[in-house]
Amino acid sequence: MKRAKQLEIAEKVRGIHRQLGRLEPSLILPLMKSDDEYLIVQVWQEGSHSANFAHEKDRKESLKLLNTLHETHKKTTWQRMPGLHTYSQLLKWQMRHMRFKSRRNEFRAFLTKEEIDQILHYSEKSLQLIALEDISEKEITLLHGDVVHHNFLWCSDGKLRLIDFDLAHLGEADDEYILWLHRVLPAIDYDLGKIFAELPELKRLDKRKLHRLKYPNELLREWLFAVDLPLDQQLIFLDYLVPFTKRALTYWPKLWYDIDRMMKK
């Protein structure tokens, strides 16, 4: 059960569920009726649990689920659905970079100046590369919009399903695969070669978009989230985020090199 912040979002989620219920019902959990228009209620799944991207099976099944979702553009025209829009990923990331930069002094209590400079350097340089992309547009389809592990749910019947379509929007499938890789890479020590060898489906991804994996999206987002938490919650979250950040930064130079090498193949 989840309460939408706006009625338009609740209506969008219900519309997506109705359409997917007709096209690919195995992707989702059915919604239950509610007298509260803002409330999104799904059938309770006893014994359900979130996907874990450290597990190969969960990586394979979650990508398969996204593939199936994106392929629905062949069966329906998502552009006709009210509440679904496109947005610029580059612009969103540029804004995130600027917000992080403007609050850098707040991070100094937890990270060294060098670590903050590293994050900003990788962010700025990757954004410059992304801005230079010259890529033909692909088919527009429905994107889930938030491919974090806990939005992939192992249900009581043993099947993996997508939940929480609040951030669903229109875009190219490649853009969501990039965001999925951002979520998966930390769980596999940022081993780009491993994930591409493990999942041949990723070969459909336009290599010219791999620059987007250089952008430290997880670090920027999580730190901007952390500094606005109440102090008691912040301290708990930082126990996870500080080592996560330090570990990520040790892998970033090799990740950058691996991306460049893969793009040249």
Automatic annotation (TrEMBL):
It holds the Pfam family APH. InterPro entries: Aminoglycoside_PTrfase (IPR002575), Kinase-like_dom_sf (IPR011009). Residues 43-172 form the Aminoglycoside phosphotransferase domain. This is Phosphotransferase. SUPFAM superfamilies: Protein kinase-like (PK-like) (SSF56112).
